[in-house]
Specification:
The chain has 1 helix and 9 strands, in the order H-E-E-E-E-E-E-E-E-E. It has about 150 residues and is an alpha+beta fold. The strands form 3 sheets. Strands 1-7-2-5 form a 4-stranded antiparallel beta sheet, with no helix packed on it. The longest helix is centred in the first third of the chain and has 22 residues, at about 1-25. The protein is globular and about 55 Å long.
Length: about 150
């Protein structure tokens, strides 16, 4: 009886080794790296919640010419940008700024007016928006009416 139990134990260990070898058979073929994980935007403001409604994910590629100041705008939903190339400084109306370079992730602000300013080289930026169907990706700040104007990219 002890011999049978010992044999089963050895088989289970061998089966586990084979399973582990199979699970990790291609470890160099797929690399996984978390680029960002955040509960707040780049300026430290906590994300409150996702918008309610039918979820809609939008992914937008921006190419920004050198020395360009984007229009002031805000976002009504959480979003994050990945700088593929170039350098981008994000600036809020109160003067708060943060500089981002190629390979960095920008956890964007929600409901806070800001703009991007490119450096000496063109910027290529991929932005992932977690919104809802029909919700604009960005909004321009109030004009004379006091209302936000929607901008759908």
């Amino acid at each position: 009886m002890k011999l049978i139990v010992l044999a089963l134990f050895v088989l289970l260990i061998l089966a586990g080794c084979v399973s582990k070898a199979t699970d990790g058979a291609f470890p160099s073929a797929i690399g996984i790296e978390t680029l960002a994980s955040s509960t707040s935007s780049w300026d430290g403001a906590a994300y409150a919640a996702y918008p309610s409604g039918q979820p809609e994910i939008s992914v937008v590629k921006f190419t920004i010419a050198p020395h360009t100041a984007m229009q002031w705008h805000s976002h009504p939903m959480p979003n994050a940008g990945y700088v593929l190339s170039g350098e981008l400084t994000i600036e809020k109306r109160d003067g708060t700024r943060k500089h981002f370079v190629a390979g960095e992730v920008i956890p964007e602000t929600v409901g806070s007016v800001h703009r991007g300013i490119s450096g000496a080289e063109p910027v290529v930026l991929i932005v992932f928006y977690a919104g809802t169907s029909g919700l604009p990706l960005s909004q321009q700040p109030p004009v004379r009416s006091g209302k936000m104007r929607s901008v759908r990219k």
